[in-house]
Amino acid sequence: MKRKNTLTLTVVILTIALNIKSVYSHSGDSVYANYGISPVIDGIINLTEWSAAGIVRFPNSTDTVTAYFLHDGSSLFIALNIPDNTNNSFDDCGFNIDPAHNGGTSGQSDDFLFRMNRAGNDKREGTGPGMFPGAAPTGWVVAVANITGGWQVEYKFDFAKFGIPTNADYTMGLFIHTWDDAVGSDSDNWPSGNIYFQPDIWADIIISATTTAVIGIPKPKNEINVFPNPSINITTIQFLNPESKSHTLIIYNTNGQTVRKIEKITNEKIKIENKDWQNGLYFFQLQNNAGIVTQGKLMKIE
After folding, report:
1. Are residue 45 and residue 63 in the same domain, yes or no?
2. pTM for this structure?
3. Domain annotation covers residue 230
C-alpha cells in the first residue's frame, strides 16, 4: 500500500530583541524587507500582494499608519496606508534612506529623500546634506490612491539606486515621515520625533537575502520534518501561544497563490487536510495583530 506523508510544523513564538550588527545603532528600531512576489504599483495596497512584507505600525493623532516592506531580488517595494488625521490630511509622505548606513549628525552626500503628495502629481527627490527635494527623480516609481478615510501610496526602488547586492542581507538607515503643508512641518513619523536630518538615529531596514527572514527573531528557529502516515493526509501545525492571542496562518505556493488561510487561531495545535496539494515547495506565515510573527518553508513529498 502506498504510504502518504504528512507535514508537521512546530513554530515557537519568541519575544527576543532583534540583534542586527550595524555601523551605527540608529534608533534601535528595525524592520525586514522580506523576499516575495512583486506587487503591482498602482497605489492600492492589495494585502495578498504584500502578504510576505515586513510591517511597521506607528500612531497618528486618531489612528495608525501602516508601512509595508518587500523585495523581489532586484527592487525594493515600500507601501503606506495613511488614515486621515483630525488635525490635517497628511499632504505628503516620504522616506529618508541612508544606503551606506554610515549615519551622521546631519545628512551625508550619499543620503536620499523621496517624497510624494496626496494628489499624486508632485514626485520629488533630494540628496546630500540638506536633502531638499530638488534632484531629478530617477530609479523609482510611485503611485497614489485616495480611499475612504485616508490614502495609500506604493513605491518601487531599483536595487541599483542604492547599490543593494543580491543574495545577501543588506542594512540601510530609514526614516518615514508624513508632512502637513498647511503647518509646514513633519506630522507623524517612524521612528518617532522630528529627526529628519539626523541619520544617526534613524531606524534600520534590513533587505533579507532569502524567503526565510523572520521578523523579531535573529535567525529562523523552525525545523520542518516530514513524517509518513499510512492512512491520512493531514498537516499538523503546532506553536506556543501562552497568551492565547488570535493568529492567522497563511500557506501559499511558489507562484504566490494562497492554498490555505486559517484565521482566529487561539489554540496551540491545528490540523488541516493537504491531500489537494501538489508535491513541492510551499511557504507559510504566522501573523497576529502586530504583524508577521514567523515565516518559513514547507515541502510536500509523496
Report:
1. yes
2. 0.62
3. yes
**pLDDT one-digit tens code per residue, 196-213:** 778 888 888 988 765 433
**How far is it, in rounded angstroms, from Cα 124 to Cα 115?**
5
pLDDT at 240 over 90: no
Q: Is residue 234 part of a domain?
A: yes
Please give the Cα distance from 67 to 64 (Å, whole number).
10
For residue 77, list its beta bridge partners: 70, 156
Verify that 183 and 221 share a domain, yes or no: no
Q: What is the CATH number of the domain that holds 177?
A: 2.60.40.1190
3-state secondary structure of 167: coil
> Within a domain: residue 20?
no
Instruction: Produce one character per residue of 153-188: b if its CB has 16 or more CB atoms within 10 Å, e if not.
Output: bbbbbebebbebeeeeebbbbbbbbbbbeeeeebbb
Cα separation, 236 vs 231, in Å, equals 14
CA distances from 167 to 208, 209, 210, 219, 249 (A): 8, 5, 7, 16, 27
Cα–Cα distance for residue pair 172/110, rounded to 1 Å? 12
